[in-house]
């Protein structure tokens, strides 16, 4: 059975400032760097064989640290990027106008084709995340891949595997450098296909980690 591990990148400057990132970027904080080294040690103990990462800076840095500890190469995969948050990227979450809040609400309340202007819909995010995940099925027998991605992107992937809508990702806290595991199984009796083994495990971190809204 194929086990795939999902890691959200380490804390960034804009995570800490509650600033919307999307496909814009900010560097890891010192805490984020430390988180990355801690999740890297966990990955090594799990026997990770492949690292596939969003190509944004925050995930790239997190993947480089994990690769250093695990002795793996990295494949950069743009389909693992965070949701494109359009015109609201770089904005502080508390600075949004009522109209702008309305755009963000559309993303998470199931509005058909809800999106922030110039941004992506949750369905578009779900489609590309599942396409990136499906590529893991082509890896050699016995592979144990680890994907480095983002809060909304991974939340959307896990939610849809559970049969929930893409926008349900708000109900799942995937904190910085949390690790989740999904398995691909063939079982006529149980659900065949992807199943969620664990989600949002932070037991390898020695301090509380933020989720994307610093809850
Ligand atoms: O700020 C954002 O765009 C997301 O809510 C969190 O993104 P991240 O997981 O890439 O920090």
From TrEMBL:
MF terms in GO: phosphoglycerate mutase activity
Entry's EC annotation: 5.4.2.-
List of catalytic residues: 9, 82
Keyword Transmembrane: yes
Stretches that traverse the bilayer: 146-168
Binding-site residues, substrate: 8-15, 21-22, 58, 60, 82-85, 104-105, 151-152
Keywords annotated in UniProt: Glycolysis, Isomerase, Membrane, Transmembrane, Transmembrane helix
Record carries keyword Cytoplasm: no
Site (Transition state stabilizer): 150
Catalytic activity: (2R)-2-phosphoglycerate = (2R)-3-phosphoglycerate
Functional pathway: Carbohydrate degradation; glycolysis; pyruvate from D-glyceraldehyde 3-phosphate: step 3/5
InterPro entries in the record: His_Pase_superF_clade-1, His_PPase_superfam, PG/BPGM_mutase_AS, PGM_Phosphatase, Phosphoglycerate_mutase_GpmB
NCBIfam families membership: PRK03482.1
Family assignment from sequence similarity: Belongs to the phosphoglycerate mutase family. GpmB subfamily.
Protein name from the UniProt record: Probable phosphoglycerate mutase GpmB
Organism, scientific name: Kosakonia calanthes
Gene name tied to this protein: gpmB
């Amino acid at each position: 059975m194929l086990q795939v591990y999902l890691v959200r990148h380490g804390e960034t400057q804009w995570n800490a400032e509650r600033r919307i990132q999307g496909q814009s970027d900010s560097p890891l904080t010192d805490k984020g760097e430390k988180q990355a080294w801690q999740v890297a040690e966990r990955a090594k103990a799990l026997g990770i064989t492949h690292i596939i990462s969003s190509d944004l800076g925050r995930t790239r840095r997190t993947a480089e640290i994990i690769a250093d500890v695990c002795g793996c190469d990295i494949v950069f995969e743009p389909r693992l990027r965070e949701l494109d948050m359009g015109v609201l990227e770089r904005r502080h979450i508390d600075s949004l106008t009522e109209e702008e809040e309305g755009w963000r609400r559309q993303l998470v309340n199931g509005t058909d084709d809800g999106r922030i202007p110039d941004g992506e819909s949750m369905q578009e995010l779900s489609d590309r995340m599942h396409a990136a995940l499906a590529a893991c099925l082509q890896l050699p027998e016995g592979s144990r891949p680890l994907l480095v991605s983002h809060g909304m992107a991974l939340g959307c992937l896990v939610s849809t595997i559970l049969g929930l809508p893409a926008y349900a990702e708000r109900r799942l806290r995937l904190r910085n450098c949390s690790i989740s595991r999904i398995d691909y199984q063939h079982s006529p009796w149980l659900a065949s296909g992807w199943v969620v083994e664990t989600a949002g495990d932070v037991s390898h971190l020695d301090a509380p980690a933020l989720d994307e809204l610093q809850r």
